[in-house]
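Researcher: Good morning. I'm working through a list of sequences from a screen, and I'd like to move beyond sequence-only analysis. For each chain I'm collecting a predicted structure so we can compare shapes side by side. This is the next one on the list. No need for commentary yet; just the structure.
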Amino acid sequence: MLPTQPFLIGFGTSWLTDVERQRSFRTHSCPTGTGVYIVQYAIVENERREATSGQRGICAICGSAMVAKCGPRVIHHWAHASRRNCDPWWENETNWHREWKALFPPECREIHHVAPNGEVHRADIRTASGIYVEVQHSSMTDAERQSREEFYQNLVWVIDGRGFRQNFNIYHMLPDPDSELAKDIIWAKATRPMRGDANGMFFRLSTNRDHNPDATKATLKGGWIEGYHTIQNEVEAYYRGHHQYDWVRPRRTWLDAKCPVYIDFGDDLLVQLDIYDESGLLCVRRVAKRKFVHDAMTETRATDIGTRFYPIPKPALPDSV
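Model: Good morning. Structure tokens for this chain:
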């Protein structure tokens, strides 16, 4: 029997409490490029607290004095009293950062991690199961990405894709790469200029082994071409969220990442950058944001996020007034 479609649930932010929404979704972004290091939490009377007007605290990493910034045109935040930046990896927060951190319990946000050599950095999110989630809005060099991956190791990236959405096309479905169907198919790379390939064109390994018995998916580069429509029903039956895509002018550091990379285009589905099979075909895998958050809180390895399919309980909604 063919496998059924996976249970994937999308969700927005309507389940957040009014208090959490007021804290995390201000209508104005924090200023960027100011050289001021801003965070959501500081230590006040030996407790992690969010900023409220008039408060003073200390930085959890360097112990320096921090002041609460709670003006009407900025996200409420903490900043060092001096123009100090004790973590060079930290970037100024936007509404997008706060939205993401608000999806996790407060005790998982802005957690500092100490390496065996004494190096300290503050992670955006560290779940109770030991997975680090770094949400990244600005561009990043290869060197910094590699440093963070080596430092945190059990890390997953979430990058803000809204700025390059128009350069990112998602094409036809792909069957589960572990299915028998997928093992016999080699897909032509889908690109914007090649409309046929974007609609789905492939050749079969089994058909072409008649004249090339040693062929594999990694070595076979051509053959009798078939169209997606001929196997559409089978593909849909074996679908697990994989698609072909084309990224014009990609941010290449994310294609080279060793840790999982998910792109947030601003809706309820994330797309994970992936390699489909031994042919080297680049693909994306759609994963519901709610499932991503659930798995990040329950799985112990970042690479296992979104790999198991089962119903997820709906979050409890506040009682209506």
